[in-house]
Amino acid sequence: MGLFGNMFEKKICSVCGEEIKLLGNRKLEDGNLCKNCTNKLSPWFSERRHSTVDSIKEQISYREANQMAVNNFRPTRTIGEHYKLYIDDNNRKFTVSSSNNLMEANPDILDFSQASGIDLKIDENRRELKRTVDGKQVSYIPPKYEYSYTFKATIFVSGNPYFDDMEFSISNGSVNTGEHNMSNSVVNTGWSVSSSFGTDRNLEKYYKYINIGNEMKEAIESMRMQAGAQSQAFRSQDAALIQATENMRRVEELKAIAATGNQEQLQAYLNGQQSFQPQMNGMQPGQQQSFQPQQQFQPQSAPQMNTASVTCPYCGSVMTPTSDGHCAVCSAPLS
After folding, report:
1. What is the pTM of this model?
2. Cβ 309 vs Cβ 318: under 8 Å
3. Domain ranges within the chain, ordered by starting residue
């Protein structure tokens, strides 16, 4: 009685507050979830029973934001028949869905950099064929079998808090190849066969899914390469910006010390900045000592300078000298 009483007890969804219909409850770690809210979760999410109400609310907020990403998603390529790999090359995004209506399905939109790999798998099933002898089913000698295959792909994902892989079927159901045993035709860790077998329709279908898997794998690997190249470009840009910022800081320090007129402090700075030495075009210590504070830079008669760009031996700046023959950046004399 207690069991049935609990079954028919009124339950409220801990997320939306609506009453949950009979047999429509989905248990959470600390509450209940209705079918409508469950349908809002990512199709690749599988940890509902171990999720809290707060974490489910956070995921639904993420899924609402994902709907905006779907609005901006413009596929340039589509690979597959049942589940499809949609690729937006212009925005470097991709998604996987069995629906042709992406706006309605709201599939998770991912960046190329989140594609961390792909695994292709073929499952084989065989059924023994038998013949009738004296009204009984007996085996052939040697035994004969009928084979069928299903094709699956798993795309591994990084940087998503709700799932780390997307496993889906490339074939819609199994492909029967009759007595043709295809188990040695491919390597499960990465397909590469692209030819067909005669005019047998079932074998043509088998190899069609092989080719779809190969194309998906090539696309995922291409995404990874593009993301890696972009990441390297960003790191190079960041390094160049850091170096430029550091050079500017050192130039400002050099100008500030020169303005004090303290020759000893200036010399100590020049001698101590080891990483700054290469910027000075290999000057000798004696040449560095000839550097004068800013108050003494003004010569009585300005030397005639070439207006072409030069490199300052003190701060490394490439610039056109000032009219009185000084560096336009750190004010050091260039004559």
Report:
1. 0.64
2. yes
3. 1-64, 72-220, 308-335
